[in-house]
Structure to design on (151 residues):
């Protein structure tokens, strides 16, 4: 009997990512954001390598199934971004596991994100509130959202 494959939650700084994992993360982000959502933009934006950035992902048998990153912003605010789940892995709660882990990593510091507008209610479940007007980013409506450190 073979053991059932299971999803493994991982957290690392850039310098602790091996090249195979980094390739898998960048490929997933490209597959979803650039190809599926048809947004031509420079996904490797220079922020992945910053010392304060934490990469959080879920993998199964070496495949990156879901990912997000947490960036350290000026003033002690943490920015959650690049939240992505592979098309075939959606609906299984992977993004929620990543958000919960990101909030654990962030601790009592305030956090923010730019949510695709149709997902604002989803992020509200984790304590995020809309903090500004809707705007277009790469042709997709987004809203800024913040989460208070006291939650």
């Amino acid at each position: 009997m073979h053991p059932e494959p299971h999803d493994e939650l991982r957290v690392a700084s850039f310098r602790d990512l091996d090249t195979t994992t980094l390739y898998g993360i960048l490929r997933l982000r490209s597959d979803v954001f650039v190809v599926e959502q048809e947004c031509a933009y420079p996904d490797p934006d220079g922020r992945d390598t910053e010392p304060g950035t934490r990469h959080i992902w879920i993998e199964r048998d070496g495949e990156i199934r879901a990912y997000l990153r947490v960036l350290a912003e000026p003033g002690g605010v943490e920015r959650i971004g690049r939240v992505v789940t592979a098309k075939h892995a959606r609906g299984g709660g992977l993004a929620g596991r990543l958000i919960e882990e990101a909030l654990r990593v962030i601790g009592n510091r305030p956090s923010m994100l730019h949510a695709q507008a149709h997902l604002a209610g989803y992020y509200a479940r984790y304590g995020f509130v809309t903090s500004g007007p809707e705007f277009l980013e790469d042709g997709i409506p987004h809203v800024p959202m913040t989460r208070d450190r006291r939650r």
User: Anything to note?
Assistant: The mean pLDDT is 89. The radius of gyration is 15 Å. Residues 8-147 form a domain with the Aminopeptidase fold (CATH 3.40.630.30).
